[in-house]
Design brief:
163 residues, mainly alpha, Arp2/3 complex 21 kDa subunit ARPC3, 6 helices, globular
């Protein structure tokens, strides 16, 4: 129950931070912090809590998005499952470069899943979305990944160390 409360509060806080990043800084600095949250909980507690995070984060992001409903939900669940698969195959525990590589691959998978879902719904315009969406999102997400993971680790240790 405590883990679920922590996950729900972290999703709410990270969604507000993403919203502020997008509205204050603009489209070029738009890290996918909710995706980092999914990867972090998958590395920390496993697939069950990662799926809960993906479902709730996707539902909230779909609710406030102009995209067809279910795009974020489906792509986040795919990313949660792929994180589990990649964690078992290529991830090395304790390696920062492996963590960044994992986040890089998951960001790419998220972009590909959303691109094909938009293609199915007929809302994608051009392939230039790689230049205007993938590259800035990937770079900014990789830029803030160490900071976000360290802060989340501190929060988890404080939350569970005092109880």
């Amino acid at each position: 129950m405590r883990k679920t409360f922590f996950i729900l509060s972290a999703i709410f806080i990270f969604f507000i931070i993403e919203f502020l990043f997008f509205n204050v800084i603009g489209k070029w600095f738009f890290p996918n912090i909710l995706l980092l949250l999914i990867v972090f909980f998958n590395l920390l507690w496993g697939i069950r809590y990662s799926i809960i995070t993906a479902l709730v984060a996707g539902l909230i992001k779909d609710s406030f998005s102009v995209n067809p409903f279910g795009v974020y939900l489906f792509s986040f669940v795919i990313c949660a499952y792929m994180t589990t698969f990649l964690k078992k195959t290529i991830y090395q525990v304790g390696s920062r470069s492996a963590r960044l590589f994992l986040v890089c691959i998951i960001c790419g998978i998220n972009f590909i899943a959303q691109f094909f879902l938009h293609l199915v719904f007929g809302t994608v315009t051009t392939i230039a979305s790689v230049h205007f969406i993938l590259i800035p999102e990937l770079l900014t997400t990789l830029l803030i990944t160490p900071f976000v993971f360290n802060r989340l680790k501190i929060c988890v240790l404080k939350f569970y160390g005092s109880l």
